[in-house]
Amino acid sequence: xxxxxxxxxxxxxxxxxxxxxxxxxxxxxxxxxxxxxxxxxxxxxxxxxxxxxxxxxxxxxxxxxxxxxxxxxxxxxxxxxxxxxxxxxxxxxxxxxxxxxxxxxxxxxxxxxxxxxxxxxxxxxxxxxxxxxxxxxxxxxxxxxxxxxxxxxxxxxxxxxxxxxxxxxxxxxxxxxxxxxxxxxxxxxxxxxxxxxxxxxxxxxxxxxxxxxxxxxxxxxxxxxxxx
Length: 228
Ligand SMILES: [Zn+2]
What we know:
CATH architecture of the largest domain: Distorted Sandwich
CATH topology of the largest domain: Glucose Permease (Domain IIA)
Strand content: 25-35%
CATH class of the largest domain: Mainly Beta
Structural class: alpha+beta
Order of helices and strands: EEEEEEEEEEEEHEHHHHH
Number of domains: 2
Bound molecules: zinc ion
Low-confidence stretches: 199-205
CATH superfamily of the largest domain: Glucose Permease (Domain IIA)
Shape: globular
Distance between the termini: 16 Å
């Protein structure tokens, strides 16, 4: 799971997808999250800040609803939107790395209580079943409390077990991975470049979503440990 908050503890208060508010059905295009270990929001991936702004309500720009917002264009192409911030701590054009503080959670724009609307869109600026916030971040699409530290506190033995597991298979068709699971591409490519997928196996030409997710969790755990 990618970590959106300093300290790693947060709650999901509204999920991605259809929801009903005040009797009105709408499609919620991101996850609403509330920091528990702190209010500092973190870059969830490396990229470039392409917006850091607030738009007046009087304008015709519908993004006034986001209040103070920051958009990062991930190096892998996706756009990461952080809305309703009390403070923006990065500026347009700035490069960010995973874990950099980008702003402070708040209640600006169309918001009823301090939270962050976190939204991941594809490189064409669209949210879809292929590229959306729960899929990209690994944050469960379920109301509840989460703690990303669990993955960071792996023991040495667990890390070794992950490395061994990742060495067992070779994955082909990077183009396919990029298309089917763009959120998985970078961590897997990192593993591949470090030589973790040794010993070609022609049987591994198709990758199920479940296998991909397992590999991505492993890749992220290794990244958290600074191994890749
Ligand atoms: Zn929201």
